[in-house]
Amino acid sequence: MNDNFARILDDCITKIQSGEGTIDDCLQQHSQYAEALAPLLELARSTRTHLSPQGPDETFVGPSKIRVMNQIRAAQRPRPTTERKDVRRQRWMLRPAFALMSFLVAITLLAASSGAVYASSDALPGDALYIVKRGVEEARLIFTLDPDMDRALLLQFADRRLDEVEEALNLDREEDAWSALVEYENTVGELLHLANSSSIEEGTLDQIQTHLSNHQVVLQRVKSKAPPQAQEALDNALERSQRGKETIEQIKQGGKPSDLAPGQLKKATDDQKGPEDEHGSGRDKDKTKTPKPRKDKVPTLVP
Amino acid sequence: MSEEAITLLEDVELIELVKRGDLDAFGVLYERYLDPIYRYITTRVSDEQDAEDLTEYVFLRSFESLHRYEDRGLPYSAFLYRVARNVLIDHYRSRIDDAQVETAERIADESPSLDERVVENEMQQRIERELGRLPEDYQEVIRMRILLGLPTDIVAGWLDRSEGAVRVLLHRALKTLRENLTDSDF
Fold it and tell me: What does the pLDDT look like over A6-53, one tens digit per residue?
């Protein structure tokens, strides 16, 4: 009896939900169970009426797909930061042989492709020649043995990434712009890693800070023109450059950020800032009490 | 494959394409299941912004673990549902860790959230409260069959039970909910 009743109840609920029948129809059709069916069907109707959730807002659906797909694409791209560090480490370990080999390879490649290298200088992510442009940058880093030169190159490349973001957006190539933005953050990350791991003159630190300040101006300019779905990614990039400035400041003061407890550095500088200096979105500020998966903080997806 | 043709593919075919690197196929899956997953999340989370963030996170996590998904009669939507459920559990754990007041098992008691949107409705509050006090599997079957209006076969796939077992579970769940509401002067 129980299984049969459960089936009838389930069928009635299905018909009522699909509009094929009403509660009265079901009670008439199954009059022998009407007494038991009626309160449960009424409860089901009432529960659905009161608690049925709304679907996603239209303003969320489109941008959301773009955000998710961009994150997946960004996570799938090769991670130049890590690879570059590995290459650099190997380069120092195998220095004499590696330097000679690399020199010969570079001469050959440059001789064969100098035209392509020149043509690639204006390439954007997604262009066929972009790989040449990035390849040349990687090669320059590999062949640079001086950490100061490394830092200078990384600053130059970070500037370039932001130029690419702006240029791609001007051409309505949003995905390519976000690709460049991800690379910008990677480059800044590597720059800070380098600044933190080797001795560095105060003048150079000032130079890095100046560049990062300029980056913030560019990012704010891009943000003012960017579509709503891009605002969060730009906020993240702004936060990245802001943290970079704070890290450099800490190094200038004689400490290393790694000596500090998480958040300590940020708090110290936040205390000196007015509200207009905040780069986090209002959305984030409201959620300090509720840690939750953030779109920019998906650690396992973006290694 | 044309944009229109790809939207006509079955889930299993789309997943094969995704595994071969076709991200557009994942975009189709995203569009197909955004609505039910978002609605499921909102039966547990009242804050719209949280629900949107968690919904996106469900899809990111499902993409990450898609290589582990194999079609063995378990629909992709059931796979997504499990990811969503785990994301919700993590979400509540993180909140609870923060507040250090509750245990992670008390998802049910955290769930009276929809009522925050329509606090003036006493009936809604009562149903929501009593629903949140039901055993977890009772809650789930009511949320899926009644609130989301999912067909029995889909709910069976999501809960990894037979259709007959889902019908019996729904009957028991509604009966218990009614008894509890009657006890509290429903």
Answer: 999 999 999 999 999 999 999 999 999 999 999 999 999 989 988 888
Flag if A291 and B151 touch (Cβ within 8 Å). no
How far away is chain A from the Cα of B38, in angstroms, using its nearest Cα? 6
Contact B148 A292 (CB under 8 A): no
Residue B4: helix, strand or coil by DSSP? Answer: helix
We find that the CATH architecture of domain B1-110 is: Orthogonal Bundle (1.10)
Residue A110 at interface with chain B, using a CB cutoff of 8 Å: no
Res. B68: pLDDT tops 60: yes
Q: What is the pLDDT of residues A233-242, one digit of tens each?
A: 788 788 878 8
Q: Are residues A180 and A256 in the same domain?
A: yes
The whole-model pTM stands at: 0.51
Q: Residues 159 to 218 of A: which have CB under 8 A from any B CB?
A: none
Which of A3, A43, A52 faces B168 most closely, judged by CB atoms?
A: A3
Residues A7, A148 share a domain: no
Instruction: Name the minimum distance, in Å, from the CA of A297 to any CA of chain B.
Output: 10
Closest Cα partner for B88 from A280, A191, A292?
A: A292
Domain B115-186, classified CATH 1.10.10.10, yes or no = yes
**ipTM, two decimals:** 0.76
The position carrying tokens 């990614």 is A233
B26/A contact by beta carbon, under 8 A: yes
Write down the H helix ranges in chain A. 2-18, 23-29, 34-51, 58-76, 80-93, 95-119, 130-143, 147-170, 174-197, 202-225, 231-252, 264-270, 282-285
Same-domain check for residues A26 and A150: no
Residues A123-142 pLDDT 10s: 888 887 887 788 788 878 77
Q: Are residues A37 and A81 in the same domain?
A: no
Residue A283 belongs to a domain:
no
